[in-house]
UniProtKB/TrEMBL annotation:
The keyword Signal applies. InterPro entries: TAT_signal. It comes from the Bacteria. SUPFAM superfamilies: Periplasmic binding protein-like II. This is Transporter substrate-binding domain-containing protein. The keyword Transferase does not apply. Residues 1-30 form the signal peptide. Keywords: Signal.
Amino acid sequence: MHVPTRRRALASMASIAALGVLPATSSAAAAAVAKAPLRLTMVNLMPWAGNGPHGQPVGALIDLSAQLATLSGVPITPMPVPYGRAPHMLTSGGADLMLIIDTSAKGGGIDYVGTVDIVVFGRSGFRFQRMEDLFGKTVGMLRHSGYSPELEAESRIHKHAFDSYDQGVRMLQAERLDVILGVSDSIEYVLGKAAGQISPRYPLARGRVALYADPKIDAATIAALQAACRQLRQKRVMDELLHRPQRR
């Protein structure tokens, strides 16, 4: 190519670029990276989250994350994972956001989307009024959960971890556990499929379904997510999604 011709070609390319026809520049590429979906983890237990008959993610928090993305304008990819894995993924770069139940007095995370009841129950005939009623008993709870610091610190209560509420209920019915501690909505979902006589569910504590975020996420995105959480909470979206008819 002769020099004058090449100059004219370069000038034409510059003109086209100015009109936005050429591929993204470095600033546009940075904007594209900023719009990449944030990875949001939640527990892979129904009715919260799980896989449908064709492997697609289903559950209350899957639908809630879609509404969180719409209200905040922040693209989000839900990632159901085992309960104990989510915090590690958030701190190790494997996730950007996490929904997890927090029972601390001050509350954790950047905001929360709703509240849940933490309950205890046993076989038919079990009664509960105070922590002393659990002394000498074997109490089962979801592995890596921490719903009652008082119970966990009490040496006169025997603790036993299980991997799912389905497993916990089977262990209770087989008399390998005396009591189960857990989230009311998860327990009611499992008991809807279980046979056998079960005691009433007794309230022990309240927890927040809190949204945690990677500290590297920018302030504007955090503010948008917080505003969306407040809207979801005010509209009681999580309660509506949890209490709708679920496919079992």
